[in-house]
Inverse folding.
């Protein structure tokens, strides 16, 4: 029986990063990565297969990283984990491990909607053949409906819109707005207007009653009776942890159905770690279970798991939740809690918003309007979260916001932030949004203190 | 005699921000801003007047901010400050103050080069008429030489290059590379190649012996005997604090010639504060005098001075030095110390560099190669500085780096950073540069510890 110091099961963002990290931190240990897929898709890039990038083959994680770092690869199914024997069973034989990392990812969530099993109803699976088939199928469709107005749903809609041929595109979202789990309404509505301008139909506050059709999908009916024509329906309503292997191995599961892990990413078995979409997450804010599943979270967890395999070195402070989404030239980013989320959880908040151009003077090339909202805890003045609207650079503003949240910076720390600015790259130093939003919040807090 | 609670002298970034901040923090106080200029130029935007933006009138700080915030404006010269009488003299009358903020800025540095007073030799003054005249003069020039290869010099060169008409453009830099006070050589050389590709001639490690000509400039002679033809010479070798008013008022000056201030921006007179280019600066690293003069530093100091006028609330932790520069589609950013600066100051350093595309997959639109270098202190593992090369988004990456430096984050903090990523906006979460550079540094530190 072949033996490895470390076996990682799963080859996407979490598995690959866990393997890389264990090689970095324990260069003397042998690492074997076991995965099902011959080639691995970049998960966040999947929507772009349909428009911008063009095909699944152009959206792959290169295996060069494995080779370069001396990580062995076995493409096969892991069918069973025997924890006592420290053994993984596969169709290609049994594998012995000293430490095991489960990075088995997630599967598309299936809603309890009648008709979801009709031909022409698709989920967003991370499988090349499935997506290639979906792409071919969509090419011949006239009416495409996407269920779910989260970031996957809206990015998918806009990319399918870019495909050759004429078709109507609709998004059906059960909540009151798109992106409602990551943005306050004033940001969601900007994206909604932008999608409508691009010809995408939006049905918010709309529950799907049933998907219509005999064998093949013909449309869907909303709870209010509205019927939508559809020759393809795509479900983009989220993902559930893939825990089959963990469950049969007798590992404990967590409150949201992921593999239970502590802050070191250890499962209920001290020799087995889990990371990524398959692992239970807790929030940076209060430590409750967090529903977020993002590749960036997966890689952080993998860096923790990989570093801890032969000696605990790292602990997760919980998931901040920093991410962005883009449709055309409009990008939105979020880090930490929105105002609504913060209030729902019981925080007293002070929020401020500033708008302005991202160049100075505003006539410099590439100028666009940006909007930044900061949410502080009213008593301690600690930053709970920020949201930003702008151009491509907001992908990095989100990381600045994430740093401020992770460091639990106060409104005063942020007002004293030493920003770098440049006419061709950023807002003016007089009007740098992050700092100005903090100064406004200080004014607001002082006003509130006086009023009290 | 007219009386104001607060008088601010100077209307550029520091003066305006000090006035705004004092209104925000002390809304009941009357603020009068006294400035010489009818209209105020955006200082960092001055190079862009010549090419991208087109004229000084398109590069102004709007006075709307003053009006909106109830700040009175008096356009005149402040000629004398009587500290005992708490009085400012101007040609338009005497003004009484309770607190005074000096934000008198800087003047172009004049090198001790024979011929600097010839007709056709220009400095970069923040005056509309002067710049308009320079623009007209340059329009008729065939050979323009810029002395100084710092960010002002290179941005100026590229903008003059964009003017209508044919002309040769040369930069003469005394040090071994352009931008050497902000970047390590491997970044400077990238910018140098980029400038050469754009047709700009570079003379590095080249001292100017004399500027040639009778009444009008005809050329210049370098220390090695090389002669350069020139019908215009622009001096871009830095700026010196404008301290005339402070000096005659009897305020103490600092070691680099700026107005001496403590960490609260108080001068040697407790009722008088100073901020911006006219004020002495200390470094975030060790507290020595810092030569940096940037609008972003000026505004931070102004936020400190303005908040402290009637009760000390804020202290400067010293200047980190975060800023960026851009020529065409190449942008460079820096925050904190370079490897060379850190070693020169006596730090033991561990530095790592990572390169990669800023999109995932790399075929996404807008992808370019980025390079990030991090410099850590070897014993404490605290981040001392970072440098980044890339596209416009690096204007905000610099601020992420600045946050990490200001928070004195360690290599482990950064390896555990929770980044947000997006295919259309950033690098992949597996290869996010900041985090990967930290992981590499940890490997390096561990290797060094083993070797020891």
């Amino acid at each position: 029986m072949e033996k490895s110091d470390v076996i990682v099961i799963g080859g996407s963002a979490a598995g690959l990063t866990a393997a890389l990290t264990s090689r970095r931190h324990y260069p003397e240990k042998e690492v074997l990565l076991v995965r099902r897929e011959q080639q691995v898709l970049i998960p966040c890039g999947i929507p772009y297969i349909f428009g911008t990038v063009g095909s699944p083959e152009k959206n792959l994680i290169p295996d060069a990283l494995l080779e370069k770092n001396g990580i062995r690869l076995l493409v096969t199914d892991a069918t069973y984990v025997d924890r006592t024997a420290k053994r993984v069973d596969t169709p290609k034989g049994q594998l012995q491990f000293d430490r095991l990392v489960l990075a088995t990812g997630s599967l598309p969530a299936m809603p309890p909607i009648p008709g979801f099993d009709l031909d022409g109803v698709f989920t967003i699976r991370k499988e090349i053949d499935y997506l290639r088939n979906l792409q071919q199928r969509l090419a011949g469709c006239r009416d495409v409906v996407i269920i779910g107005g989260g970031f996957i749903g809206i990015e998918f809609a806009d990319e399918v819109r870019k495909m050759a041929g004429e078709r109507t595109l609709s998004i059906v979202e059960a909540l009151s707005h798109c992106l409602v789990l990551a943005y306050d309404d004033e940001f969601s509505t900007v994206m909604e207007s932008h999608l409508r301008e691009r010809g995408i139909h939006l049905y918010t506050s709309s529950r799907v009653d049933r998907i219509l059709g005999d064998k093949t999908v013909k449309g869907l009916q909303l709870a209010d009776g509205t019927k939508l024509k559809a020759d393809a329906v795509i479900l983009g309503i989220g993902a559930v942890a893939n825990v089959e292997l963990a469950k049969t191995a007798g590992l404990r599961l967590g409150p949201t159905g992921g593999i239970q892990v502590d802050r070191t990413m250890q499962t209920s078995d001290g020799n087995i770690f889990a990371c990524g979409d398959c692992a239970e997450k807790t929030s940076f804010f209060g430590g409750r279970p967090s529903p977020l599943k993002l590749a960036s979270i997966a890689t952080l967890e993998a860096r923790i798991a990989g570093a801890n395999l032969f000696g605990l070195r790292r602990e997760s402070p919980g998931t901040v939740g920093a991410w962005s989404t883009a449709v055309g030239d409009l990008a939105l980013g979020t880090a930490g809690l929105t105002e609504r989320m913060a209030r729902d959880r019981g925080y007293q908040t002070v929020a401020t918003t500033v708008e302005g151009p991202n160049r100075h003077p505003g006539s410099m090339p590439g100028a666009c309007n940006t909007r930044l909202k900061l949410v502080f805890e009213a008593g301690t003045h600690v930053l709970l979260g920020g949201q930003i609207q702008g151009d491509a650079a907001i992908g990095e503003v989100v990381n600045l916001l994430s740093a401020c949240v992770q460091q639990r910076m106060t409104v005063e720390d942020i007002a004293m932030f030493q920003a770098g600015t440049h006419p061709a790259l950023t807002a003016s130093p007089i009007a740098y949004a992050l700092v100005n939003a903090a100064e406004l919040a200080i004014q607001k807090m002082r006003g509130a203190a006086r009023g009290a």
